[in-house]
Amino acid sequence: MESTTSFDAAPDLPPDSGPGVRRSLLDDAGMEWEVWCCVPAAKKGGLTPDYARGWLTFESASGEKRRHAPAPADWRTVSDDSLRILLIAAKPARQRRTA
């Protein structure tokens, strides 16, 4: 059966994108993930248009991070199954370099 789930990207900023707004999710393997929306405070050069409008960050209990852009406007209220689809589509986040 083919999935027909659709997600509406936020025109400007996703709602509920403030600090502390998070969701928890279990993937199909039982791994726990925290999900939150990141929105750049100012227009930064180098961001693709999708990322400039905000993205979802998925972080697993083991520390793996993935990003999905753009963040759907309804990310806080979509079903866990729909959020799992976004997790699968999310790209691995680059490791930050420390000084």
Strand content: 15-25%
Q: Oligomeric status of the shown chains? A: single chain
Global mean pLDDT: 81
Placed side by side, the strands forming the largest sheet appear as 1-2-3-4-5
Overall body shape: globular
How far apart are the termini?
A: 49 Å
Helix percent reads 10-25%
What kind of sheet is the major sheet?
Answer: 5 strands, antiparallel
Number of helices: 2
The topology string of helices and strands comes to EEHEEHE
Total DSSP E strands: 5
Runs in which pLDDT lies below 50 for 5 or more consecutive residues are: 1-11
Coarse structural class = alpha+beta
Radius of gyration: 13 Å
Number of domains: 1
In short:
With about 100 residues, this protein is an alpha+beta fold. About 15% of the residues lie in helices and about 25% in strands.
Provide keyphrases for this structure.
5-stranded antiparallel beta sheet, globular, alpha+beta, 99 residues, 5 strands
Protein model, in words:
- This protein is an alpha+beta fold and 99 residues long.
- It has one domain.
- Helices cover 14% and strands 24% of the residues.
- The chain has two helices and five strands; from the N terminus they run E-E-H-E-E-H-E.
- A five-stranded antiparallel sheet has the order 1-2-3-4-5.
- The N terminus is likely disordered.
